[in-house]
Amino acid sequence: MATENFWKIKKKLTFTDICVEIRRLGSDYHILVSGGECPHVGCTVLAVPRPSLDGSGRMSSTASVLNVTGHKDEEVCRYLAEKVSAGKKTTVVCTGGIHMDGITKEQIADNIKSFEELLGSVNREGMDRLLEFIRKSDFYKAPASTRFHSSCEGGLLYHSLQVYYCLQRKKAEAQVIWADTMQKIDDESLILVALLHDLCKTYYYTVEMRNKKDDSGRWVQVPFYTVNDKVPYGHGEKSVMMIEEYIKLKPVERYAIRWHMGFSEPKELYGTLGEAIKKYPLCLAVHEADVEATYLMESDGE
User: Alpha-carbon distance 237 to 278, whole Å?
Assistant: First the structure.
């Protein structure tokens, strides 16, 4: 649904539907995001455009955030507000909330089946041993984060599949800027870099207890995820190390996994990251897919 000053976009995800309504107010924009099992107002973000502080001349934005206590919708609302504000060079307000109660056992089972079918289709010596390691580890049960996205049992598995679907779609629907690059990447490489980019989060999280008020106002103990990194070897580089204990990666795969965090890396590494992207543009494609999956396709798991 769209008019000159209003757009409504509905997207069906694996576990829920989301709706993004965009309304133009003069030269400014208001964005309303809703979805999940209990749509709500969890966050409002006001973004104002400004020149980037890195001196490159590109546009960026400054955001002011108002959160409802206990809600985590800032990740989605802030991303959309800042992105549109910088892109359109105008003021943007984004409001909304997406709620999911986690991933069911049946959905986890379906995701495991899809994950193993995809990874098993890769003809690489040692793949059987890598799959066996993954099955014995906590990869299928681990969250993707402690609270930012897919912070629930099976979240890491779900996130890895979403990154693959994003990359697959980028290749299938490649526009001019990506057409040549993505067509040069074989399907096996897409599968490997997407499904295994966060293998570093295996044996990374642990469950602890904290006090939280229930619906009646009583304090009860509830579980929550914390980080307990048993192999402190970095992030992307750690995934590469763990994968290559079982299979050999191609250079493009190694680079893409190592740099999948993109510009979330420390600023002092931006120069090296830029050179890696020039050498292997798949680094940027994987980062974009990771961001899209994190902020637009996944919930916080609560």
Answer: 19
